[in-house]
Amino acid sequence: MRYFLILMTLLVLSLPLFGQTVLEAEYPGYINDTVAVIDVPSQQLTLYKDGKAIRHYPVSTAERGVGNRANSNQTPPGVHYIRKKMGAGEKSGTVFKARVSTRKRVAVEHRPRHLDGDFVTSRILWLGGLEPGVNLGKGIDSFKRYIYIHGTPEEGLIGRPASHGCIRMRNADVIELFDLMPEKSLVKINP
Domain 2-190: which topology? Predict the structure, then answer.
């Protein structure tokens, strides 16, 4: 009985590392010492460094839920990687159009309400899918769907589903995440 309890304790303690170890084995060639895990039900992003959770951020995923189809306005599930990063050095609240800084800034709305327009602000971490048939391939490709982790002026909606498919973050949080995650880092979206 004592052996069983020790074994179960070790198993439970290793669970956070197990997910990262599986990602390392299945996706060689990608940066796997820094991994972001987005949990859609809790609207949380947890950043792992060397298997240890080092940051927790509230996020906002799609108002229409989880899905992978083009034009669905849903957040795609599965394993992704950061294919491109944009916005280094831009001021917090800077608005991007077609991934280019407008050099204009938008005021943050702290109340839980939608603004006119779907603003992408501060930083962009553009995701590429790694799972054929899930988030990679014709009609479901996360990169071609322009799925980002990005800042938003609608900070009052962070913590609840409100986006058009992307993962929204508070501006200060996405700036910090941008600096902590290099391109080719893995991102797992759990539905």
Answer: L,D-transpeptidase catalytic domain-like (2.40.440)
